[in-house]
Amino acid sequence: MERKHWLIKVLAVLTMLLSLGAAVGQAQPAQAATDQSLAKIKQKGTLVMGTSPDYPPYEFLVNNQPVGMDVSIAKQIAKDLGVKLVVKQMDFDALLVGLETHKVDMVLSAMTPTPERKQSVDFSNVYYTSGQSIIINKTDKSIYKSYKNFANKNVGAQTGSLQYDLVKKQIKGAKITGLTKVTDLIIALKTHKIEGIAAESAVATAYVKNNPDLTVLDHQFNLSESDSGTAIAFAKGSTSLVAAVNQSLAKIKKQNLTEKYLSEAGKSLKVNVANTSMWHYRSYFIKGVGYTLLISLIAVLIGVVLGTLLALSRLSHFLPLKWIATAYVEFIRGTPLMIQVMFLYFGLNVPALTAGVAGVAMNSGAYVAEYIRGGIDSVPKGQVEAARSLGLSYKDTMRYVILPQALKIIWPSLGNEFISLIKESSIVSVIGVTDLIYQLRLVQAATYKGIAPYAVAMVIYFILVFGLTRLLNFAERKMQHA
Question: What pTM, to 2 d.p., does this model score?
Answer without folding.
Answer: 0.70
